[in-house]
Amino acid sequence: MKLIDGKKIAEEIKSNLAKEMAAIIDAGENPPHLSAILVGNDPASETYVASKEKACKSIGFTSSVYRLPEDITQEKLIEVIDFLNNDDEVNGFIVQLPLPKHIDTDYVLQKINPEKDVDGFHPVNIGRMVLGLPAYLPATPAGIMMLLEKMNIKTEGKHCVVVGRSNIVGTPVSLLMSRKSNPGNSTVTLCHSKTENLEEICKQADILIVAIGIPGFIKENMVKKGAVVIDVGIHRIEDESEKGYHLMGDVDYDRVASKCSYITPVPGGVGPMTIIGLLLNTLKSYRREIYT
Ligand code: NDP
After folding, report:
1. CA 143 – CA 84 distance, rounded (Å)
2. Per-residue pLDDT tens for 188-208?
3. Residues 62, 25: contact at Cβ < 8 Å?
4. What value, to the nearest 5°, has the Cα angle with vertex 134 and ends 113 and 59?
5. Going by CA atoms, what residue is nearest to atom 35 of ligand 1?
6. Is 203 part of the annotated catalytic residue set?
7. CB-CB neighbours of 26 under 10 Å
8. Does this model's pTM top 0.90?
């Protein structure tokens, strides 16, 4: 079994990006700028936004955070989005999810200019991805594809089973895996909560990508010997340790790992690559690579 060390791969990419940014700054140019809109005080969202700011700083991007109150109206939030859409200093921005319940998330995300939609959630970017046109790919699926590429894992002709069909992970990664590209060219089965015989289907997977949000859901009886397992899930499990918790994924790692040819750990697998996806999208916007 080989561990897919997402943390190490992410650090290598960040180190290369940092060198590139140093050259840009030395040449007297402004580096890329990423903004985030954070509504309310959800602790997990605060942590995610802080880690995005930290990642920007570590490679030489500039960043800014627009903190808005929990009870902000949808109209006011859209005004801030419009402001960032029109700010030439901002190459890309994200609206940190989840938003409070009184806000229509799908509607709000459509107000982001697709050219600055570095999370890749706008229907225009999703449509371009489906058609195989240049697009900002959603960060987590893009991170998974980078892991497969960096580990030289053969995907062509393989049966890839994706468990979970969310718009941000399962559905886009299933599309990317079936695309005529490398990584890609897999035969994909997309499973969800209404799938019958899930165990049988998972057992057929050469590559099993799991994003369902249930800790330790995938057990050893669901995994074929020699499979590649990508665990997207991330859960805080309370324990007696000094920290008071440990992290675990959607896969029961301790029981599954020995059956796999490759597996991502949690933490340190897919998680660190998600932020890389976001940084690379921001750089693509800066270089006008998607919308020329
Ligand atoms: P969602 O809750 O949006 O989607 C979960 C999906 O799993 C749904 O499609 C659901 O089916 C399916 N599902 C739920 N229960 C079952 C079941 N018993 N059998 C089969 N399918 C099931 O989750 P996300 O995609 O947003 O996130 C999934 C996990 O990944 C979470 O733990 C999240 O924290 C983590 N995550 C990690 C990231 C990272 O950077 N590492 C980034 C994003 C998410 P249905 O559609 O029928 O309801």
Report:
1. 26
2. 999 999 999 999 999 999 999
3. no
4. 75
5. 233
6. no
7. 8
8. yes
